[in-house]
């Protein structure tokens, strides 16, 4: 009698778990059915391969860590985290690489190519380009001294791209704070996520063209941005003239540009945020200002929230199940004939 009872209990538990799993798979609000162990049996060496190649790329070019982190942002904010940003233009696709936020600035494609090449040799058509980008972003953060997190996996790759989405949906350096908040909300991200993820600017560079107006003509009346430290602005003007030098690079964090830490927030408190979209977190909203101060005071708290927000961002509209595909080459969709 007890044997049958336990068998019934086991069967009932199995059914409940199966129903829960099904609800996870079909619920669009929880990032589809992504889980960290997705490749444990089909390609157990996947994450180690990604880490190894990212580490090699970072050693050769320390800027690459920030580039790979940014690549994940720019992927997820357009059609979800589906590797659409990696596609080159073709007869049927207009690449997102030519959009205003990405042209002449988005990097790291060759690193993703190398990772994909090795993975295709080890586990053909198993690991998606979208998952490669997500894991590479995590590994890049860790390599620069930032927080670690477990990456949910199981994303599939898109069959197309959206240059319109890339132009319209990615927050821009000159957007107003309400516009940036709206763009985050449209992705299911809140103000806490916005401020924490902006902390990714603790590493990396920006171009003169992205902040020039702050130095010379912030509101169209020929006056610099009053919220930018005058001494800092004077130094920036030496390499960012009123015309020309568009592609000249500047550290986003002038104090610790290659270290992932909370110095970014400390810079904002003394008005040394180079981008308007950064400094307005301090000057345009009490709620965001309080978060800036909190993270400037507590590096551990910033790290914890950054990791949580990265997982949340990585869950934006993934393609799972039979949707999308596993590309053989991250730059092009597979042949379907």
Compact summary:
This protein is mostly helical.
Explain what this protein looks like in three dimensions.
There is one protein chain. By secondary structure, the chain is mostly helical. It has helices spanning 2-26, 46-60, 64-76, 109-122, 129-143, 163-169, 177-185, 191-198, 212-216, 230-237, 263-269, 276-283, 286-297, 299-314; strands at residues 205-207, 249-251. Strands 1-2 form a two-stranded antiparallel sheet. α8 (191-198) packs across α13 and α8 (191-198) crosses α14 (299-314). It is globular and about 55 Å long. The chain starts with a helix and ends in a 23-residue tail after the last helix.
Short key terms for the protein model shown above:
mainly alpha, 337 residues, disordered N terminus, single chain, 14 helices
**Helix count, per DSSP?**
14
Query: How many E-type strands?
Result: 2
**Topology order in helix (H) and strand (E) letters:** HHHHHHHHEHHEHHHH
Pick out the low-confidence regions.
Answer: 1-31
**Strand order of the main beta sheet, please?**
1-2
Radius of gyration: 22 Å
Percent helix, as a range, is 40-55%
Class by SSE composition: mainly alpha
Main β-sheet, in a few words?
2 strands, antiparallel
What average pLDDT do the residues reach? 91
Instruction: Report the sheet-strand fraction.
Output: under 5%
Shape summary: globular
Q: Give the CA-CA distance, first to last residue.
A: 57 Å
């Amino acid at each position: 009698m007890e044997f049958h009872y336990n068998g019934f209990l086991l069967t009932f538990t199995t059914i409940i778990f199966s129903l829960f799993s099904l609800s996870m798979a079909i619920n669009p609000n929880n990032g589809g059915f992504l889980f960290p162990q997705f490749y444990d049996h089909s390609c157990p060496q996947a994450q180690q391969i990604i880490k190894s190649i990212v580490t090699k790329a970072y050693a050769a070019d320390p800027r690459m860590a920030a580039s790979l982190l940014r690549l994940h942002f720019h992927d997820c904010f357009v059609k979800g985290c589906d590797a659409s940003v990696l596609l080159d233009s073709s007869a049927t696709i207009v690449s997102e690489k030519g959009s205003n936020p990405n042209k002449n600035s988005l990097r790291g494609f060759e690193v993703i190519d190398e990772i994909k090449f090795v993975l295709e040799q080890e586990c053909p058509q198993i690991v998606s380009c979208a998952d490669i980008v997500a894991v590479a972003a995590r590994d890049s953060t860790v390599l620069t001294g930032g927080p670690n997190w477990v990456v949910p996996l199981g994303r599939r790759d898109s069959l197309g791209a959206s240059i319109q989405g890339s132009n319209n949906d990615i927050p821009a350096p000159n957007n107003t704070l309400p516009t940036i908040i709206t763009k985050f909300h449209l992705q299911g991200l809140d103000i806490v996520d916005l401020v924490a993820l902006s902390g990714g600017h603790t590493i990396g560079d920006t171009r003169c063209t992205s902040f020039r107006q702050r130095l010379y003509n912030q509101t169209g009346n020929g006056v610099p941005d009053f919220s930018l430290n005058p001494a800092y602005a004077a130094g920036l003007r030496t390499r960012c003239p009123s015309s020309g030098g568009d592609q000249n690079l500047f550290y986003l964090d002038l104090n610790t540009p290659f270290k992932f830490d909370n110095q970014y927030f400390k810079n904002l408190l003394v008005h040394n945020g180079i981008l308007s979209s950064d400094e307005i977190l301090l000057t345009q909203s009490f709620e965001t200002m309080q978060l800036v101060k909190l993270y400037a005071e507590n590096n551990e708290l910033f790290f914890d929230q950054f990791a949580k927000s990265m997982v949340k961002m990585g869950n934006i509209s993934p393609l799972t199940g039979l949707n999308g595909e596993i590309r053989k080459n991250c730059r092009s969709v597979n042949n379907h004939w």
